[in-house]
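Q: Joint fold for the lines below.
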Amino acid sequence: MGETGNSDAVAAAFADGPAYVPYLVVGDPDYESSKAYVEALDRGGADVIELGLPFSEPIAEGSTIQEALVRSLDAGMTPERFFAFAEEVEVDAALVCMTYYNLIYQYGDGEARSASNASGEAASTGPRPFVERAAAAGIQGLVVPDLPAEEADPLREACDEFGLDLVFIVAPTTRADRLDRLMERVSGYVYVQARLGTTGARDDVSDQTTESLDRLREYDVPKAVGFGISTGEHAERIVAGGADGIIVGSALVDVVAEGVAEDLSTEEVADRLEALSRELKAGAERGYRSRTEAVESA
Amino acid sequence: MSETDTRTTEETERARRPGRERGRDDGKFGRYGGQYVPEALMPAIEELTDAYERYVLNNEDGFMDEFRERLADFGGRPTPLQRAGRLSERYDTEVYLKREDLLHGGAHKLNNALGQVLLAKYMGKERIIAETGAGQHGTATAMAAAHLDMPCTIYMGERDINRQRPNVFRMKLNGSEVKPVTTGRGTLKEAISETMRDWAATVEDTHYVIGSIVGPHPFPVMVRDFQAVISEEAREQAIEKTGGLPTDVVACAGGGSNTMGTFAEFVDDESVALRAVEAGGSTLEVDEEAGVAPNSASLYAGEEGVLHGARTKLLQDSDGQIMESHSVSSGLDYAGVGPELAYLVDEGRVEPVAVDDDAALEGFHRLSNTEGIIPALETAHAFGYLEEHHEDLGDRVVVNVSGRGDKDLDAAIEETDRRDVPNAPDMSMFTGGI
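A: Joint structure:
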């Protein structure tokens, strides 16, 4: 077990230099292509890969990822196929599943759930079957954007039981008292939301990012910054500013969307994803070097 | 004691009745409710909870006094409880109508919209956003925002915009911006998701006026408390007019705000049967393959799950994906329902019943041609229920007329023309058939 989490693989991803944490929607635009895309992220230097399992009502996503989730659902993605994907995809990076709570909550034995509903107890199945299945498929952690710390205890217990990390998002609006509550429950890494709003690639790096990192400095858990990162230069500045990792979603999903719009071959899209990944990873490493050099010269 | 002090005490006492305490502490109704929202929204939810406790529950700065005064002067409250003579005769039981259709704007929605926009002002917010399905909540919010001088943006599904054009014009006339939502099937559930996205980006200066008793705590209890004025009045009026409590209280249920508003003060009266009439659509069967439930009967047919910030009963497939719901009335067309109603149904306190599109249209025409009241298609479900189940009812029934039907005339003409509604006039003259 890592010091700040359950998964050794996730801990290792942050142990040595900055972590590059890309996100793609599994099954976007179809199962086989997305396998090639996720493997391209891995070749491009991914340390952790966040795999999106689509939910029909993704309230935290901007239009780019929302459309990707719809493409995946339309192509027949289900939790079961998602787990099959995680088992089949060939990558070195640690895999983390990003999805919404209803899918986690509903997964598993329908009959057991009905029986527990009829008895009036809190469903004894709850999130446990999903986490058990995810662990069996090699998933190392979960990110659940609509599950705040207050509602997370059943999921946290299941994650502890099966050795998964449960990653929480810290927003620019998160107040100090909530920060403590989140940090008591987080494991693996904390997802630092760089700005208010939904996901989506942006051109600039927000002041809110720097403020958030400053506020988190005292907590001993890796800090990965996400929301709006799209270039190597962004990655460099964010890591130079103190981030332990960068999470990139919409900029990569945009590449997949372009592939759909322009009818590009799977190979072409995979190449572009790999190239962008190398740029982002290199940027993160430059940021890390400038930060360590600054520390050494001080 | 001054007049204001007396009123303040009354407000505080009213707010503290036992039946109304449910859900206030932690936002939980048994297993339902809660706060399933992105972290970015949590501080806003906490700020709102604090404001709800101070202004609504404790009447700080006379908030509730101002709310009631504006409901009276701007809204036209109290609305009457009217005996429906011809329906009473038809069903051989005393039928009373709570006339929320006479509230300013033509529906019960203003109770909540006015309360929340006023609360936003007390909280120092500078902008209002809201979702709307049928457009009733949108128009009520737009009216309240104009009345209280707050900039307002309304999200509305594209399909609903096409079904409810007059309401779109009304919102614009009141100075609100209307943003079409094109994702999914373009109805209420997509509009709610889109409004939550806006809120996630603008939460510091913006209040989200949610339109029903759904969403994360404190919305379900707060919206219930604003809408409870319906049952506060109805209960007193019933006692005054008939000398006792009704045997049955009937209200249609989509998200459940008029339902819970109509039930709130009767929940503790165990002798009163509470009947929530849901939209049965074309059938209660579910098409898993297509992800479609051709109804909106989440209390009657739904399963427990998490949607839009709360654990409640939902129309969903076995994976947990939310189904596309359907109803002839766009205001009931929602895959979820308020967590408090889900709880009261499980407790056996509220009986959920489903009335299909055909019966709702019959109800629409029956109230129109026997009582001279054209109801909203949502409301019409309650009258469809009366026709089908009047033999199950006691001898004194209160039905909430949640809204008037002017907004639905085009839809009613079209839907009537498409089927054989026995009690309807010939609609072909309107659809170009002559």
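Q: Anything notable?
A: Residues 187 and 240 of chain B are 41 Å apart (CA to CA). The mean pLDDT of chain B is 92.
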